[in-house]
Write a structure and sequence with these properties.
With 350 residues, the protein is mainly beta. It has helices at 2-17, 36-40, 240-244, 259-268, 291-297, and strands at residues 70-77, 83-93, 97-114, 120-138, 143-156, 159-174, 179-193, 207-215, 221-227, 271-279, 283-290, 308-316, 319-329, 332-333, 335-342. It has a 14-stranded antiparallel β-barrel.
């Protein structure tokens, strides 16, 4: 059965690679990170296997029985008055599998409308919403699979759109080796209702990710490596200034980059790395680095800490409170807040 499943995944990879476009035009909010812990690790987490209910948002195969009756609440203070969040709850039924449901939203704020002459009209709001319905189960002692079905609704003034998408993932978790690897296909779907009649259907931000996690046996460290957008090799982005700098100012000839330099840059644009330090049982400190974010958002004259991220998680009584801060630009970063709890610690099981 495991061989058939692995064969299916690789066939799926070949199929989706034929049409997938990373960073699609619609529903980009599906890629933002809710969890403070994941934000601290660079924004990607398809292969962390523990009892954190925020993790199945990134890979539904991570949903497991340790999350039974857990509840998570997330809030993110983003940029320019934008905020977003996520709430999720999970239950396990031994004979069936693991289930979870969550709501993911992004609120763009309040806007003042105006007509073509500049005269003020009405005020309006804009927001995106996605319902997450997840299921996972073990297929043997080491492998687990999961799916996440996502109805998506976008409300931008008088323009509305509806889409259906799903995530499908597989996880290999070996507790004796403290090692986990995972493969996830995210945002497979289609825009059903377009924003306006006569428009083209816009692609969703499809993404194939591969991740590995390793915890050290004799030290309180865990290490994470994620490769994203495996469906496309070249993720580079050029500004007009970058294009101008490709040519020698004196001769006008194009400056050819070394093949190894180009290869290394393309490779690293797929990579996000992170590490966690556990201080006792109640404190976790996380650090992360996202190379592509740094290359796309930095200012060459002052790169600062763009692309780096950090966070801390503290358990107080029955609650785990987390804070994460990724640095996006010299203008600052976003503030991520997470609250998680096991409801069984409050009430008897129901």
């Amino acid at each position: 059965m495991v061989r058939r499943l692995i064969s299916f995944i690789f066939l799926s990879f070949t199929f989706f690679n034929s049409f997938a476009q990373p960073g699609g035009k619609a529903f980009q909010f599906l890629d933002v990170t809710n969890s403070a812990r994941v934000a601290a690790l660079g924004g990607k987490a398809p292969s962390i296997f523990d009892d954190d209910l925020n993790l199945p948002f990134h890979n539904p195969a991570l949903l497991n029985n340790q999350m039974h009756n857990h509840l998570v609440l997330n809030y993110v203070d983003y940029f320019a008055g934008i905020n977003y969040g996520y709430v999720s709850y999970a239950r396990t039924y031994e004979s069936i599998g693991n289930f979870a449901a969550g709501i993911h939203y992004l609120n763009y704020g309040k806007f003042q409308g105006a007509d073509e002459t500049g005269a003020l009209t009405h005020t309006f709001r804009a927001a995106d919403y996605a319902l997450n319905i997840m299921y996972s189960r073990k297929i043997d002692s080491l492998f687990q699979v999961g799916v996440n079905f996502k109805p998506i609704y976008s409300d931008l003034e008088s323009y509305n759109s509806f889409a259906l998408a799903f995530d499908a993932g597989i996880v290999y978790h070996n507790p004796s080796l403290m090692f986990t690897s995972a493969l996830i296909f995210r945002n497979i779907g289609i825009q059903i209702d377009k924003y306006y009649s006569g428009g083209d259907r816009e692609p969703l931000p499809f993404d194939i990710q591969l991740g590995i996690s390793q915890r050290l046996k004799y030290a309180p460290f865990s290490f994470y490596i994620v490769a994203d957008h495996l469906e496309k090799w070249d993720l580079s982005y050029q500004t007009e200034e970058d294009k101008e700098n490709e040519y020698n100012e004196l001769t006008g000839e194009k400056i050819e980059k070394k093949k190894f330099e180009v290869f290394g840059d393309n490779l690293m644009r797929h990579i996000t790395v992170g590490t966690e330090l556990s201080i006792g049982k109640n404190i976790i400190v996380g650090l992360g680095y996202n190379y592509r974010r740094r290359q796309e958002m930095k200012v060459d004259t002052k790169t600062s800490m763009v692309g780096f991220s950090w966070g801390i998680s503290i358990r107080i009584s029955k609650f785990r409170i987390s804070y994460g801060r990724p640095s996006y630009h010299l203008a600052g970063g976003s503030n991520h807040f997470s609250l998680s709890m096991n409801l069984d610690e409050f009430y008897k099981k129901f």
